[in-house]
Design brief:
The structure is a homodimer. The first copy, chain A, is mainly α. Helix content of chain A is about 65%, strand content about 5%. The first copy, chain A, contains six helices and two strands. In chain A, strands 1-2 form a two-stranded antiparallel sheet. In chain A, β1 and β2 form a beta hairpin. In chain A, α1 crosses α5 and α2 packs across α5. Chain A binds a DNA duplex (30 and 30 nucleotides) through α4.
Amino acid sequence: MEPVPMLLAMTYRAMGDQFHDRLRQIGLEPLRPAHGYVFRFLKAKRATTVDIGQHLGVTKQAAAKIVNELDEWGYVLREPHPTDKRAQYVTLTTKGRDYLKFADNLWSDLEAEMAEAIGQDTLDTIRTGLAAYLQHVHGEDQPGLRPVW
Amino acid sequence: MEPVPMLLAMTYRAMGDQFHDRLRQIGLEPLRPAHGYVFRFLKAKRATTVDIGQHLGVTKQAAAKIVNELDEWGYVLREPHPTDKRAQYVTLTTKGRDYLKFADNLWSDLEAEMAEAIGQDTLDTIRTGLAAYLQHVHGEDQPGLRPVW
DNA sequence: AGAATAAGGTCAACCTGGTTGTCTAGTAGG
DNA sequence: CCTACTAGACAACCAGGTTGACCTTATTCT
């Protein structure tokens, strides 16, 4: 019997691969999961590079690299912090928001296909079950989304 | 609402971190998930480095590195292939088998705690649901367990 | 049998996505 | 104002992979 974590990893891979494949057909930059998490985070709140690193669970230097890429590709831009002259807010451009919208639709599609394959109720149970487990382990303050492997 | 893959990744991390923590308390070498997968694979069948690479979904060179480590640490040893003078079988030592046993117990403990937290039936549904999805996506020939992130 | 091709294993160079460590400029609290 | 801290940039490094070349042994095809 496969250990549960193995199933989690394999399923994650399977969904991620499909996501990536379909994305590539559109011909967008080779965005990695971390980029997506940044978009989602930036949509929710204004944030600096340090904030992003914290959220991702990586060092600020690693976060800075990611932000640089996103900047070069036009998904985000930096604007001066109103009160702190050291800091810069990282904000989504229109391209960034469009990407996020597109990605969200794609995820919805993939989840819908999953629901079709294993049943909506089963999928719901998976979702709530995993969420409950995370709640149980981490309590309120969920940790970053650091690299998985 | 969190996308499902995010939940998968976070849960995988959470379980993996706990596994790693408890393992470290025992003071064993810093084995990574890939090493564990190798053990599991070697227990099931005799295999060469190339086979291992295939199973892991990495190049034979990457597999060779892993096997080298495991060899140095005494978890596996190489023995000549009976009919093919090029090839070597990689086999588990007693230390390797002991580790695997220990790890399996640890995983069981973690799953038991998970079951306690979210309910045995929920956990069962998660397990069968994910397995069914993988079956649906990949059919019979499951792919390797390549790095997840 | 002999030649061409494929496969196991090793070596070496390189790439990527992270790390630590150091520095400057700006902030905040006593 | 002085001290301690923080945002961000720069550089060196590391781990875990990759690609490519190679040698040796196997296999296949004529």
